[in-house]
Amino acid sequence: MSRTSSQWHLVARYQSRHNEVYRSPQREQPLRPVELLGRPWEKVAMDIFHYKRNDYLVIIDYYSRWIEIKQLTSLTSDCVSSRVKTVFSTHGIPDVVVSDNGRQFVSDEFRKFAKSWCFAQHTKNPYSPQENGMAERAVQTAKRLLDLDEPEIGLLNYHASPHSAIGVSPAVALIGRELATLLPVVREQLSPRQHRDGDIRNSDQRAKTTYKRCYDRPHGVRKLPPLQNGEPVLLKLDGEKQWSTPSTVFRSDPQNRSYVVKTGAGICYRRNRKHMQGVPNVLPPVPNNELMIRTFRLRIQAKSCRRTVQVMKSCRRTIPVMQSSCQWTFPPD
Question: Which residues form the Integrase catalytic domain (predicted)?
Answer without folding.
Answer: 36-200
